Queue: 2 jobs
Job 1
Amino acid sequence: MSSYTAYIQPNLGRKTLHVVRYAQTERLLISAGRVTGVQYLRHGHHFKAEASKEVILCAGSIGTPLLLFKSGIGPANMLLKAGISPTLNLPAVGTNLQDHHGPILPPLYVNPGVAITPSNFTATEFDKFLNHARDSVASTVRMSTQGFFLSSSVSGSDWPDIHLRQRYVCAVDAPPNQICFDVVAGRPQFSLELAGTLTLNTSAYLSGERDNVKLAIIDPKVLESKRVFRILRESKAKGGNTETIRSTVN
Ligand SMILES: Cc1cc2nc3c(=O)[nH]c(=O)nc-3n(C[C@H](O)[C@H](O)[C@H](O)COP(=O)(O)OP(=O)(O)OC[C@H]3O[C@@H](n4cnc5c(N)ncnc54)[C@H](O)[C@@H]3O)c2cc1C
């Protein structure tokens, strides 16, 4: 099941839905300060799709800011360096790239003979699951046990800031009694502290490059926040503790 088969395919008959396949949006069409449509490339030809009401941009966390940059929306100084004339100076575009980093704890073992993973969960089975999604395990997160804990930086609150998660996939080709966990800084403000940046490779753009993979400069700023780093380090000690795991599993 993909998002296409779940949401698009059943609605293909709708008069209000028109799907254009093999199309790459190149830029937004902007007129009098309003986005009025998109220009897209299909089989080497440029086309325009005009909007009668509004344009909703959903090209993902990398594609969306890049499309805005290419359309002149973003930090004006960066756009000028790329030879793009700024339509709207929005310095925040590309500055809130978020991910949830989860350092993996060393594996733990339950009693020999007790199976946590099926004995056939091998790398071949996992590959079958990823690439064919049939005749194989149903989920990579099966039996995913989760726990929430307080680090020492929390005072006077019972709102946990550490998220402990069982990782199923780290058990590929491992003994069936192996169990793995990772820790994530689990409060919304951590995501902001962990926010990375996405900027445009201005010299590549100037020299004519249009491939997003080559145009995106991604700095995830992994663990640059000292506070988050401290909490994750503490979480590692806490999460690697058998008692913590036991209370999570129970
Ligand atoms: C490894 C991983 C694991 C995740 N696990 C989970 C999870 O367990 N639970 C959860 O809720 N979320 C999870 N997420 C997050 C989730 O996948 C995203 O939040 C979600 O897919 C975002 O949806 P979207 O439609 O905004 O963007 P996307 O799904 O990224 O879709 C954007 C689409 O736009 C297309 N596109 C980009 N540029 C252009 C262009 N110029 N022209 C035409 N098309 C373009 C792309 O090809 C893509 O198909 C995970 C993400 C990753 C990477």
Job 2
Amino acid sequence: MASISQVLLLAIVGLSVTSATPVVQQPGSAQFTSSMTRFLEAFRSIMPCGFNGIPVLAPLETPFYEFEYISDDYTVVGNVSNMRIEGLDGFQVLSASDYGKTGEAAYDLLFPKIQFLGSSDVEGFINIGGIKVPIRQKAVINEALIDLRFVGSYSFANSQTNSSGLRIIDFQQSVYLAGVRMDNRNTLWNISTNNFWNRVMNTYAPLALQEMQPGLTNFLYQNYMIPKINDLLANVSMAELVDYYQTLAQAFENANCKA
Ligand SMILES: *[C@@H]1O[C@H](CO)[C@@H](O)[C@H](O)[C@H]1NC(C)=O
Ligand SMILES: *[C@@H]1O[C@H](CO)[C@@H](O)[C@H](O)[C@H]1NC(C)=O
Ligand SMILES: *[C@@H]1O[C@H](CO)[C@@H](O)[C@H](O)[C@H]1NC(C)=O
Ligand SMILES: *[C@@H]1O[C@H](CO)[C@@H](O)[C@H](O)[C@H]1NC(C)=O
């Protein structure tokens, strides 16, 4: 059985359910879109239960999590308790067409609302012009991402290490966020300061995402995600990939998870 990271990477490959211009097809391509659609629905169905090493993802709950970021310019240590993330299984595939007919895989995926609930305790300092400004925050986290949307496309070519295997080329993705709804409460702050920061963040977060976008796509995906996916695909033919999705989908369906 695949590890969780393999399944999640495959789920990302699996988001390719739409397409555009005709190119040469590998044997099995005609089944790619239908096996994908089935796999995604089956994956959604196990999210409330978890499956063989895949944790429960709907909701995703982390009882306690500690972190520590230290550099010359800042030190931030803290922890997050009772984090609960809701809505990961609420995704909608907004468009779908047949990869087998066109050879360009494209996807348009929407999460209408992802809700984060929890509490955090953070301590540290930021160095601003040689002055160490202390940070102390105890907060109740209650924030939501509204209409988080991923629109992307890619194609398959032969692997460079195995001509019978696959690799992903021409990967492009944009991420859109319609809004955030912050209702965090820093218990060390009064109500008006909390309201002020929630308003600032509601306005700023979607803009920050837009600013970060070219860096995100280029760096994270091109350097990290795609090479990892291509390593996984190197010795896998299209027919085997389709078969793998069908087999996993069948196993997920057999788990018969009732939310
Ligand atoms: C983290 O959690 C523990 C309680 O488990 C607490 O004692 C500690 O002060 C917390 N805060 C930070 C900033 O580490
Ligand atoms: C809330 O705190 C801020 C910053 O410390 C202060 O300027 C403001 O007057 C306070 N407001 C109330 C209503 O206490
Ligand atoms: C693909 O096969 C080659 C040759 O057998 C091997 O060296 C490589 O590790 C394999 N890659 C994967 C991801 O299994
Ligand atoms: C290359 O990929 C094919 C297709 O999946 C596979 O059957 C074969 O074992 C791979 N070759 C090597 C050397 O791993």
